[in-house]
Design goal:
one-carbon metabolism, 8-stranded mixed beta sheet, alpha/beta, oxidoreductase
Length: 163
């Protein structure tokens, strides 16, 4: 099964502030839902808790150093290798959905990155998406979306694939 990372960042790689998304972009959230629906979505404990409820229509998998107590309606794993063994052996994509530490841990194992770049600079960011080495990753697709009444920033959806 391919391992795909999915994220949205600003122009300085910011993906979060105080365990929250730094923007509200319904069109970007719809893209996330479309790309992850019916798949296993792996995230860290803090990201899972920030959702306030599990993602519907997807298997919610949480990488945590703890025993998973208090994490309802999800499966837990404790290591990257355990997650890869458990979720990367079938025919569906494993979708890695953050946060920053999880992205860093899974980047060496990823086959594809779906990265939305939001056309803004968010001050105070404390979680960042890792840099993608252009000798390892190539852009295989992109689509620009203008800002509108519901989406205060324009953004571009990029697809990166491992070379």
């Amino acid at each position: 099964m391919p391992v795909t990372m999915i994220a949205a960042m600003d122009i300085n790689r910011t993906i979060g502030i105080h365990n929250e998304l730094p923007w509200r972009l319904p069109a970007e959230m719809a893209y996330f839902k479309e790309k992850t629906m019916g798949k296993t979505v792996l995230m860290g404990r803090k990201t899972f808790q920030s959702l306030r409820k599990p993602l519907e229509g997807r298997l919610n998998a949480v990488l945590t150093r703890g025993d998973g107590n208090g994490l309802a309606n999800c499966e837990t794993v404790q290591t990257v290798n355990e997650a890869l063994r458990k979720y990367a052996g079938g025919s569906s994509e494993l979708m890695v959905a953050g946060g920053a530490e999880i992205y860093h841990l899974f980047l060496p194992h990823a086959d594809k990155v779906l990265l939305t770049v939001v056309d803004t600079d968010i001050p105070g960011g404390d979680a960042f998406f890792p840099s993608l080495d252009e000798t390892v990753w190539k852009i295989t697709g992109s689509r620009f979306r203008e800002a509108d009444d519901n989406n205060p920033y324009s953004f571009t959806f990029y697809t990166y694939e491992r070379i």
